[in-house]
Amino acid sequence: MSQIVYRRMDAVDEGNIADEVMVNPDFELYQSGSTVIANTTGAIRRGIPYGWQLKGALSGNSYGICKDASIREDDGNLCWIKSSPMPQDCELYQIIPAGKLAPGVYEVGCLLWNQSGKRGSCRLFANDHVQYYSHKGDYDQILKEGEFSTYATYKAGYETHTIMHPMRVVLAVHEGEDLRVGIRTGCESNAGVQDDDTGWFKVDKFTLRRLGDIDTADPDSLTRALIVNPDFEYSAEGELAGGRNVTGNVPYGWQMSCSGTYSMAASGIYGKGEGMHGLNYCAFTPSGYSPMPQDFMLYQTIPAGKLKAGATYRVSCLMWSEEGKEGRGRLFANSQVQYFGSPYSYTDNLTQGEHSTFACYTGARLDAKSMQEVSVTVTVQEGEDLTLGIKSGSLKGDGTAAVGTDRTGKFRVDNFRIEQVSADDPETAMPGQAARASHADVYDLMGRKLPASRIPARGVYIMSGRKYVR
């Protein structure tokens, strides 16, 4: 669970219970004496926001709530916490008592902004689960023992031009357990402890959703039964790679297909990868600095006899594509695919006949190739096999083909998983199924709700917090 990174569109507020169990989750209120007032004018209200607590001593009075003119497309209040220096161990938090929460799996979210060059150790937290704003490589010297960390991979911004980004952590809350949520930060960075305002932040719109019950069953039992070597830990049957690089051959249990020839000299399984699971991951990089074949496929086929007819399955993996060289790299399960980046990175290279979604990750830097989770859902019919894996190719998003030494389409992958889910669940069903089964609200890219008569036959739209393309 600690490796999941959720990227929901915040225009969709379905299932958010923050207003029911938190106090002032969107920082619209302030307290004057014993009176709680809505800050409708957006005036600067200094002090720790109403309903929240602060751990750590701040210098000066540059903290509170206000409407921020530098925030684009947001006419509400936000919270900012700034001090020079920032405390080394600082928390803006509130505690949701166990009595307000049913045991289960929860998603905690917010909008967050960090300043370029001054990220510090800033992160969203919910109990011991955290998400840092940028790449793992920006924090790897200051990670905290006992925290389960994920990385949103955003680029930090400038103080006069603020774009706030959604942050998400997912965790289990057990019977009798309180939930402490907020922002943890400090003046410490990979370069050491700073004496300026490193670690200051702007935050808004905390959300809380219950995703379901805590699964006490072995979550990997179906994966082990259906997929051979799903996390690339084996170099051969019964032989663990143990973190060694094993190149030159298609990984054990997997098959590869493409037109023409493909040299495996720089492809296979590797150790020591950013965001990897276990001791090994898989990488496919054309040797000799040549383009990736246009119809490349790394795959396994699960025969129909091992699957339940009419059942819906979620297939997921960890994946990385280099920013600007995404090509056609995508997770697939039959005709359902998910691309690593946003729809704008694939305007002219999508494949006809596929149902495409987009994970909307920012490609990691060359020195921080951080794999992130991508997933699709697929329903298999009577007698239908399930073929899953990675498809790729060197066709660029603008429709031009990579040439020469351009290795567009290369990728890293790890930790394939499969689980059976309900076809009636709008969070897991395929786009067409979800719309028919649950009548889920549909939004355009501006966050405007669309009536059923205006759901686009073609184009990009948002449903249940996810982006789809028809």
Characterize the quaternary organization of these chains: single chain
- Look up the CATH topology of the largest domain: Jelly Rolls
Quickly count the domains. Answer: 3
Q: Order of strands in the sheet with the most strands?
A: 20-23-29-25-26-27-34-33-31-32
Tell me roughly what share of residues is in helical segments: under 10%
CATH-derived architecture of the largest domain: Sandwich
In whole angstroms, how far apart are the ends?
Answer: 30 Å
User: Would you tell me the structural class of the helices and strands?
Assistant: mainly beta
Description:
- The chain is mainly beta.
- The chain has three domains: 18-212, Jelly Rolls (Sandwich), CATH 2.60.120; 224-421, Jelly Rolls (Sandwich), CATH 2.60.120; 431-469, no CATH class.
- The protein is 4% helix and 36% strand.
- It has helices at residues 18-21, 221-226, 431-438, and strands spanning 29-32, 35-38, 45-46, 53-55, 63-67, 77-81, 90-96, 104-114, 123-126, 129-132, 148-151, 165-173, 179-185, 188-189, 192-193, 201-212, 234-236, 239-240, 246-247, 255-257, 268-270, 281-284, 296-302, 312-320, 330-333, 336-339, 355-358, 372-379, 386-392, 411-421, 442-443, 449-450, 460-463, 466-469.
- A ten-stranded mixed beta sheet has the order 20-23-29-25-26-27-34-33-31-32, with no helix packed on it.
- Strand 31 and strand 32 form a beta hairpin.
- The protein is globular, with a radius of gyration of 23 Å.
